[in-house]
Amino acid sequence: QVQLQESGPGLVKPSETLSLTCNVSRGSISTYYWSWIRQSPGKGLEWIAYITYPGTTNYNPSLQSRVTISVDRSKNQLSLKLTSVSAADTAVYYCARGDPGFLDYWGQGILVTVSS
Amino acid sequence: DIVMTQSPDSLAVSLGERATINCKSSQSVLYRSNNKNYLAWYQQKPGQPPKLVIYWASTRESGVPDRFSGSGFGTDFTLTISSLQAEDVAVYYCQQYYNTPWTFGQGTKVEIK
Questions:
Q1: Which residues of A touch B52 (CB under 8 A)?
Q2: Do B48 and A98 touch (CB under 8 A)?
Q3: Going along chain B, which residue ranges are E strands?
Q4: Is B55 on the interface with A (CB under 8 A)?
Q5: CB A46 within 8 A of CB A35
Q6: Among candidates A60, A98, A106 on the partner chain, residue whose Cβ is nearest the Cβ of B101
Q7: Which residues of B touch A58 (CB under 8 A)?
Q8: pLDDT at position B92
Q9: Quick one: pLDDT at residue A41?
């Protein structure tokens, strides 16, 4: 059973960069699609981006100018960077495996709060 | 973007009774070349991530009880819980994966009456 675990800072200051990592265990990151999704009370579930190894990416246009998704195959790890954050980026961030578009395995999520 | 609209926003059903949730997409999510509807349903309980329940509009995910079923095609879809159990209390979301950006409905909260 594939397991995903998000990690990163729970608090980020406005205008700074949010950086998250997702460790994938019991499965290879070299197959399937790997996504980041976020959930905030105001906007519900929002798909952010996906990546397939070795590096095909697809971003939500609403965030594309600020988002970078990447994969480290040697660590079996997925990463997310979101620049110039504001309070509107406060949310629970999930990583998930896509097959390719339905999301069959999810991490537990990490709450990221943007505040000074 | 494809807009997904669920109805109702919430519903209360007696234990053992049927629960029906609707999802409408702003454009068809049926891919005619393979006759598949690119529509999934998720269940989310408090403090937990969403859990895949149904994909391809009507295929039940492994391990999901058979009281859950999905139907519909094109733009109109339904998730049915044939006999509501206490453990089914959750928020349910539909999602289209026909086009990026993949988009979700706003969610339907299912409670016990």
A1: 102-104
A2: no
A3: 4-7, 10-13, 19-25, 30-31, 36-37, 39-44, 51-55, 59-60, 68-73, 76-81, 90-96, 103-104, 108-112
A4: yes
A5: no
A6: A60
A7: 100
A8: 98
A9: 78
Tens of pLDDT along B40-80?
999 999 999 999 999 999 999 999 999 999 999 999 999 99
Could you read off the pLDDT of A1-45 as tens digits, one per residue?
Answer: 999 999 999 999 999 999 999 999 998 898 899 999 999 977 789
B100 closest CB neighbour out of A44, A58, A96: A58
Euclidean distance between CA atoms B58 and B78, whole angstroms: 9
CB contact under 8 A, B104 and A45: yes
Cα(B37)–Cα(B59) distance, integer angstroms: 10
